[in-house]
Design brief:
Largest sheet: 7 strands, mixed
CATH architecture: Alpha-Beta Complex
Strand content: 15-25%
Structural class: alpha/beta
CATH class: Alpha Beta
Order of helices and strands: EHEEHEHEHEHEHEEHEEEH
CATH topology: DHBP synthase
Number of strands: 12
Radius of gyration: 16 Å
Shape: globular
Distance between the termini: 46 Å
Length: 199
């Protein structure tokens, strides 16, 4: 079922997520596939839709840094990065402190998190607070910024939030801080230099 990003449809999507749905929604980078990160059945369904190996952990997106602080720990440099670039295209690998989410997502000691800079995604996150947020594509294939292409190439989800074509700078930069060193795990629209300026 296709819906839009207006207020009524955002409420519909949030309600569906709370009831275990897996949805496709627009982010600031590409179309995303999301569900309630605490719902193990929904998480497993999302893995099936994406044909992703269960050994590959799923990232979580949040409405704000404050919401993500409830599940993960930020050191001083990670705090600075979040304050500077969120909402935006930077994913941080942080120390996980929420045991429930660790169990439902089968995570180790760390979790990948970000706050997306998308009006539609943020309006949904305002209702849900946290979502699994991974690209809406089959693992190993290119992600989509065109809703039509995404819809044609992906099946098995419950709801599709159509936010039109996403004009994106590219994927989010994935960063892990170890001993105050900046490690770029995936290059994206925010450069290493921009991050290192904060250190």
């Amino acid at each position: 079922m296709k819906i839009s990003c207006n207020n009524d449809d955002v409420e519909k999507a949030a309600s569906a997520i709370n009831n275990g749905a897996v949805i496709v929604f627009p982010t600031d980078t590409v179309y995303g596939l999301g569900c309630n990160p605490y719902n193990r059945d929904a998480v497993l369904a999302l893995y099936e839709i994406k044909k992703r190996e269960k050994t590959k952990p799923l990232p979580v997106i949040g409405y704000s840094k404050e919401e993500l602080e409830k599940i993960a720990e930020f050191n001083p440099l990670e705090e600075k990065i979040a304050e500077k670039f969120w909402p935006g295209a930077i994913t941080l690998i942080l120390k996980l402190k929420d045991k429930d989410i660790q169990k439902s997502l089968s995570l180790g000691e760390k979790i990948a998190v970000r706050v997306p800079n998308s009006k539609c995604a943020l309006s949904l996150l305002k209702e849900c607070k946290l979502l699994v947020g991974t690209s809406a594509n089959i693992s190993g294939t290119e992600p989509f910024n065109d809703p039509k292409e995404c819809d044609e190439n992906l099946t098995g989800y419950d709801l599709f939030m159509d936010g039109g074509i996403i004009s994106s700078e590219g994927a989010s930069t994935i960063v892990e801080i170890e001993n105050n060193n900046v490690n770029i795990l995936r290059k994206g629209s925010i450069s290493e230099e921009m991050i290192k300026e904060l250190n």
